[in-house]
Amino acid sequence: NIEMEQFSEGTRVTMVVRDNIHLREFVHITMKFSEEINEDDILSIFELINRLLTSEKLGELERNNLTKSLEAYNHAMSAPYRVVIFKSLFNSLELAINWDKNRKNELKGEEFDKEVAIVTNLNMSDVEKWRAIYNRTKHVDRELKELTEYAEGIQKIPSFLEKLRTATNFVIIDRLNKIP
To answer: Which of 25, 44, 46, 127 is most buried when burial is the number of CB atoms within 10 A of its CB?
Structure first.
């Protein structure tokens, strides 16, 4: 790297010599996953999705909300980060629960928590915790208390993911089964 500076007394030339050292590390991990697939369950889900796509008795609002729920679920299954997985799963759950609601009668807050608890047989307090963390992840922290809630919530996300995924699966399938 050569730098030249002009002064009234003359020109100063500065030469900087750098030597780059390349460091490389390799990690090789082999992982095996064994998953049993129940073909009857897969076929049943395909039939439900086909009904979603083809039912003439299903309104556009319901079709769109369930489609968006499935898209959010799909995003969660391919996301690399736990926070993104959590947010996508919760968003999918929210869309599925409110699949047949418009803005005026959309379930929010405790009403949402209660409906999820009823449909999934979960404790309402679990759903309330998920909703609180979800809200903290999408809103600006304006107070130290909110920053603390966010930091603590992020730490809890790994322990919530399996139950949230199961609940979301259950609600989506429940709603798909209600398609005429």
So the answer is: 127
Gap between the Cα atoms of 57 and 54, Å rounded? 9
Taking each helix axis from N to C terminus, what angle separates 109-120 and 124-138, rounded to the nearest 10 degrees? 130
Q: What is the mean pLDDT of residues 28-32?
A: 67
Record the tokens describing residue 39, joined without a space. Answer: 């073909």
- Residue 158 token pair: 């790994």
Residue 20, helix vs strand vs coil: coil
Dihedral angle sign, alpha carbons of residues 128, 129, 132, 137? negative
Q: Which amino acid is at 124?
A: M
- Sequence-distant (≥ 6) Cβ neighbours of residue 152 within 8 angstroms: none
How far apart, in Å, are the Cα atoms of 9 and each of 5, 91, 121? 11, 68, 84
Confidence class for position 169, pLDDT limits 50, 70, 90: very high
> Is the pLDDT assigned to residue 5 strictly greater than 90?
no
